[in-house]
Amino acid sequence: MAKDYSPAIKAAIEDFFAQDDWKYEPMDENGIFRTGLSLKSKIKNIKIFINVKDESFSIVSVLPFGADNDTKAATAEFITRANYGAMHGAFEMDYSDGELRYRTSLFVGKGGVPTFEQVKFMMYVNVVTVEKYGDGLMKVLFNLATPEEAVKEIEG
């Protein structure tokens, strides 16, 4: 059964992709677009999922690596430190399998339509944040820095 989604939000996302020249997979029956991006960091590629709902949309960038049992606690600390004070999104970790991702969301309300600028802002906040914090996250995963050291290095 297909999920409920806003055709207007779907059209706004498609408009962003067209205007900003992104390659993507058309939205599926569950309201999800798929795309990806190459980054200028040690994280070379991410998969991006845009989930369109009736009153909102969320963008989830899935990192190409995860935390193993030995690094989950340190990774959770890194994520907590990185997320502290974040206004537009958050890192997440699935504690069961170590999957790491970054999520941004925008609520527009019933009948609301995000502007091109809003969609672009949410997409780029997502991608830039993954790029900014990715190298520090890798240092924590490979025990090259403590979570506190890694976040301090990133945030200055």
What does this structure look like?
This protein has 156 residues and is α+β, with helices and mostly antiparallel strands. The protein is built from four helices and five strands. It has helices at residues 7-19, 72-83, 116-141, 147-155, and strands spanning 32-38, 45-52, 56-66, 89-93, 99-107. Strands 1-2-3-5-4 form a five-stranded antiparallel sheet. Strand 4 (89-93) and strand 5 form a beta hairpin. Helix 2 packs antiparallel against helix 3 and helix 3 (116-141) crosses helix 4. The chain starts with 6 loop residues before the first helix and ends with a helix.
SSE arrangement:
Elements lengths: L6 H13 L12 E7 L6 E8 L3 E11 L5 H12 L5 E5 L5 E9 L8 H26 L5 H9 L1
Antiparallel strand pairs: 1-2, 2-3, 3-5, 4-5
Helix pairs in contact: 2-3, 2-4, 3-4
Descriptive keywords:
elongated, 5 strands, about 160 residues, alpha+beta, about 40% helix
Number of helical regions: 4
- Shape category: elongated
Strand tally:
5
Order of helices and strands: HEEEHEEHH
Termini gap: 48 Å
Portion of residues in beta strands equals: 25-35%
Q: Whole-number average pLDDT? A: 95
Contiguous low-pLDDT stretches (5 residues minimum) are: none
Based on helices, strands and strand pairing, what is the structural class? alpha+beta
How is the main sheet built? Answer: 5 strands, antiparallel
What is the radius of gyration computed over CA atoms, rounded to a whole number of angstroms?
16 Å
